[in-house]
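Worked example 2:
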Amino acid sequence: GTIRENIAFGRPEMLDTPEGSKAIRDAAEVVGLREFIEALPGSWDATVEERGGNLSGGQRQLISLARAFLASPRILILDEATSSVDTETEASIQAALDRVLAGRTAFIIAHRLSTIKRATRILVIDGGTIVEQGTHEDLLAMEGYYFRLYTLGFASSADEPEEVNVGGS
């Protein structure tokens, strides 16, 4: 399919009207993809290979976020939204997440603490059991499992770690 069709995946009726086309473009704009798309040969009608083979991991993630924004669900489940991307792309995805998640409930499964730091409630799971819960600040104040993971991940530098395993696996 095309870039346009990929973003409209959950809302195929959006492909048939000028209003739908505008909504697709707006969704891409919200996640910061519009300039990238419009620079492609074929622009919005550029072909996306099977499994997004001609896109980077970050571009695939951003298209998925644009798709989620267009579908406008009340609840989103995101599994490793920033895994396997470089630091710059992670920042783009984080900014897109902030916009896409506004006003929605989200369940975010993540190993990178940077993905969940702004969550209103974090559940820390170890061996399939919830061992702690709270905000990022609450969990740090507890000086428990989350605190140890955070300290290990950030002790060696002021930058975000590449990956910290919050799931205990």
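Residues 3-119 form a domain with the Rossmann fold fold (CATH 3.40.50.300). Residues 76 and 106 are 5 Å apart (CA to CA).
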